[in-house]
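Hi support team,

I submitted a single chain yesterday and got back a structure, but I'm not sure I'm reading the token output correctly. Could someone confirm the output below corresponds to the sequence I sent? I've pasted both exactly as they appear in my results page.

Thanks,
R.
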Amino acid sequence: MPTDDLLEKVKKLREITGVGFKDCKNAIDENKGDVEKSIEFLRKKGIAKASKRMGRTAAEGVVCINEKDNEFSIIEINSETDFVAKNEEFINFAKEIAEVALLKKGKIDDVLTSKMKNNKLVKDSLVELISKIGEKINIRRTSYLSKDNLINFSYIHSSLQKNVGKLGVLLSIETSKAKNEVIDLGKQLAMQVAASAPLAIDKDGIDQLVLNKEKEIITEELKNSGKDAKIIEKIAIGKLNKFINDNTLLNQEWIMDPKKKVKDIIKDFSGKDKIIIKEFIRFKVGEGI
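Hi R., thanks for writing in. Yes, this is the structure output for that exact sequence:
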């Protein structure tokens, strides 16, 4: 592996994990330059812990939300630099894509083949924008919340403009309460999703493969720490349950009162009425790229 390439990967691994140079270089060497495998390697050794810093964010761009009559769309469009992401033409393009995504109910293939206000297809307008700006631009993902007997909410963190920012959330609830009674709660729940990045609403929503992988990593870490084999399984179950609580919305600590869980807040607020979180969507620019 060329020296420059090696150093770049070690630097990247350090940024993601917060681990020292020597351990990162060893991990890269052991895993033949694969950064993802190196992260797992360091975690199994007990050197790196699971943290928000391990969320890979390698792209710039914006998240944009559009809403009409309780229907919402959300899109992520990427650029190579933050300079372009703040370009007015780029942002206006993103806003119109969010409008199209609302009409097409978040189906990205339908979005790309739809006409824009310039009477050209989205995919052709995208090529023209790339040519004009001189950077690779990609409509990465789109999603949608319908209004079917639900009340929907949105939240943009650190907005660049109204409904445009680097992190966006859509959230829907089913309730027997009137909309005006749950507006504040709905917005707070959307903020909770933005801040705490849950993987699912509850345990049933987490992919079993994710849980299996996390248990494998926890178990390997415990083995490498010299723990007695008889108690490893018990400790692993406890750590896995903590992982589930930390990553499921209902079981997370309420950001406005960490002594309570989200499900406690909902229970207290609902009283004799019903409040059920049906879905949430969280887009953060560049996450997972």
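A quick pointer for reading it: The chain is about 45% helix and 20% strand. Let us know if anything else looks off.

Best,
Support desk
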